[in-house]
């Protein structure tokens, strides 16, 4: 009887395996695209090449796997809440290093990548693809249009354009 119950889970898994494979592969591709974009504009030491790519890819796949596991045996809402909490913890470690606050775009990108993985895990392919394209566009925009962003910074920078006072 125990052997039948052991293979019952395997039977269910194999029944849904093609769907699971598609979801994980799409999450992998989405995480890779976002990770490659982030990796291409960061100057890292040679020993850390691929770290950003791996982080984004693994977060996207991991959150997808957690949602798939939740759909087949756990309460989905509780697992989703724990993913958000865990990724928030990961983001806090990225933002606050050596008593210096930096890396907010990276942390927010990882947070969005986790949400994208969760979308693919739930089977929302179109929404996940749209979110991947938007995240890529948002992260790539400052690099593609540097002059636009530099102009915006210079225009609003009080050091470059100090405020005039009535005493001038």
From TrEMBL:
> Keywords in UniProt for this one?
Cell membrane, Membrane, Transmembrane, Transmembrane helix
Name the lineage.
Bacteria, Bacillati, Bacillota, Bacilli, Bacillales
Listed name of the protein:
MgtC/SapB family protein
Q: How does it sit in the membrane?
A: Multi-pass membrane protein
Which ranges does the record mark as transmembrane?
16-36, 56-74, 80-98, 110-139
Note whether Cell membrane occurs among the keywords: yes
Asked whether the keyword Metal-binding is assigned, the reply is: no
List locations, semicolon-separated. Cell membrane
InterPro entries the record matches: MgtC/SapB/SrpB/YhiD_fam, MgtC_SapB_SrpB_YhiD_N
């Amino acid at each position: 009887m125990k052997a039948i119950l052991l293979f019952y889970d395997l039977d269910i898994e194999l029944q849904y395996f093609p769907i699971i494979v598609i979801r994980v592969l799409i999450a992998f591709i989405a995480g890779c695209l976002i990770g490659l974009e982030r990796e291409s504009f960061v100057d890292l030491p040679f020993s850390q090449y691929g770290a950003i790519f791996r982080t984004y890819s693994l977060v996207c796949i991991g959150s997808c796997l957690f949602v798939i596991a939740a759909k087949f045996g756990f309460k989905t809402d509780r697992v989703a809440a724990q993913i958000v909490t865990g990724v928030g913890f990961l983001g806090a470690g990225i933002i606050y290093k050596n008593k210096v606050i930096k890396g907010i775009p990276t942390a927010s990108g990882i947070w969005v990548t986790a949400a994208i993985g969760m979308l693919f895990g739930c089977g929302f392919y179109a929404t996940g693809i749209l979110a991947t394209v938007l995240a890529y566009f948002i992260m790539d925009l400052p690099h593609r249009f540097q002059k636009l962003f530099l102009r915006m910074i210079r225009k609003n920078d009080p050091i470059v354009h100090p405020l005039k006072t009535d005493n001038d």
